Task: structure prediction
Amino acid sequence: MKVLKFGGTSVGSAQRMKDVAKLITDGEKKIVVLSAMSGTTNTLVEISDYLYKKNPEGANEIINNLEAKYKKHVEELFSTEEYKKKTLDLIREEFDFIRSYTKDLFTLFEEKVILAQGEIISTNMVTNYLQEQRVNAVLISALEYMRTDKNAEPDPIYIKEKLKVQLEKYPDADIYITQGFICRNAYGEIDNLQRGGSDYTASLIGAAVNASEIQIWTDIDGMHDNDPRIVDKTSPVRQLQFEEAAELAYFGAKILHPTCIQPAKYANIPVRLLNTMEPSAPGTLISNDTEHGKIKAVAAKDNITAIKIKSSRMLLAHGFLRKVFEIFESYQTSIDMICTSEVGVSMSIDNTKHLQEIVNDLKKYGTVTVDSDMCIICVVGDLTWENVGFETQALYAMREIPVRMISYGGSNYNISFLIKEEDKKRALQSLSDTLFNH
Ligand code: ADP
Ligand code: ASP
Ligand code: MG
Result:
């Protein structure tokens, strides 16, 4: 069985829902994971913000606007009075339920219940639409089987067992629709797998049912328009190893959420990225296969800050790096790139919320310099150290660009450069010309 996940943009309007319905009704039995309609989760977060701030009027205004939008979607989606009414009743109930939270104390617990409603609504709409079209589709609730443990990590044994029970309730169904993102925690409370977590749901389900393939359907065209981070100048990337995908996911979390990789890799289930706007295109296949000696993609990430600490005390001292890392850890700031020499360490971060505190603390150990408006350029592919020539090619491509840091050898799949943001375009073009266009 295959597991297909459609993201927010792919179910973002009545028409897009109809397109998805067409795509999934090919007679093959499948599990379909859906996100909330695009923008909805953000709006639910906004509603929660008003409620945290004890402003129920503000929340109610947004709730009413959102409800009006959904009523319009329902009017457009259904052609029979029966299903239109059934779905409008559900929308009314859902929004009355959300409104009931504007009256009492509002905590993280209530917020999670509110955030869960986006996926609950979208999956009900699509299931009702399929049933109206006489497709043999059923809705199974993620709250019945998707669960995290006491460490807030998904519990694969529980998921496998409970999902099986749900599927066995409807042995004759062709399509099982279910919610991405939402789950229950170890205490049975409604929770979620973090923003963008629908991909994770699909991957966990794929592993639980030992799927033949996990398909992540997204609006890639939409992503390319507003997401300049992924550069793919020549031909689209057709195949990636899981680790290569993990390197790229950091740069373009919008193609595939990084958490989604591990369960699929572990269960050895291929993940195919597909484009809802071009359904017949082959997409990108992510698997445990490595295409030997091949560079796959070049990606870039902006808004990077480099921090250098220079200290004569570092010379031959042990424990120096630990002290430095502890400072970053205490401000919950993760380090992306790191380069060391005998007299200094350079690190890059993309979260500058606590930059000033970090710099102040680092000054205890040496002289600190900060470079902002930097950018990481990452070359991804089979860069196993025994392969010769690839580092030289990448370095050659960067010959005219001032390079602040280089990182190679951390994994078998990447070489990264830290450069000025203003040099990004030039660097990407040169890398692309050198590595692909010959
Ligand atoms: P899509 O197929 O459009 O990516 P998703 O359901 O995967 O749909 O994502 C829906 C929206 O959730 C995205 O457009 C984005 O705004 C938001 N989102 C996705 N991943 C993240 C993330 N890691 N952090 C915050 N928001 C995210
Ligand atoms: N709807 C959730 C979000 O916007 C989860 C997802 O779409 O993946 O984050
Ligand atoms: Mg996504």
Summary: Residues 108-132 form the longest helix (25 residues).
